[in-house]
Write a structure and sequence with these properties.
The chain has 219 residues and is an alpha/beta fold. It has a domain of 152 residues: 3-Layer(aba) Sandwich (Rossmann fold), CATH 3.40.50. It has a 5-stranded parallel beta sheet, with helices on both faces. The chain has a 3-stranded antiparallel beta sheet with strand order 6-5-7. Strand 5 and strand 6 form a beta hairpin. Helix 3 runs antiparallel to helix 4. The chain is globular. It starts with a strand and ends with a helix.
Amino acid sequence: MRIVLVGPPGAGKGTQAALLAQTLSVPHISTGDLFRANISQGTELGLKAQQFMREGQLVPDEVTIGMAKDRMDQADAEDGFLLDGFPRNLAQAEALDEILRDAELKLDAVLDLEVPEEEIVKRIAGRRMCRQDSSHIFHVEYTPSKEQGVCDTCGGELYQREDDHEETVRKRLEVYHSETEPIIDYYRSQGLVTTLSALGAVSDVTSRALSALGRAEAA
């Protein structure tokens, strides 16, 4: 299956993408991973992306599209893939359609993870990370540390990332609404979108997604 996963920051796209890709035996292709891989490998596209990032600019669509196309052309993606973070806007969505059309392929489904905005703000703004090991993550309400400000695992200091401050989260949501949300209507007009609640246990959200994909496959 060829799937696009879309949703606002804090909706749990990365978690769901990894679980779904594993269950469906297709590669999970995320924009962040594409950038890191191309930069670390010193590819032409990676060097271009790195230059824009160093200058504090957004990576142009054509660079991101080129990276995504190269990744989708790899052997492990021959039977399908799950895209996370790409396409980010209408130009990228149209480019993806063209790439697939040229290969005589098509998308099977677009999963739209839906979370109320205030819940997103609560999820992200309440997150605390360990300075010693960024994989140790807590939440002031959902998964608080035993001692305030101290990592349960290694005793490191817990802090709030700049990107997780409420004002920053709301700005990220504004960007999502203006740039990314329009692709949902674009794909809805093609009959590809299923909107799913991303509230509740991770396993429950995964079950909803798999159920929606079952329906898409049957169609």
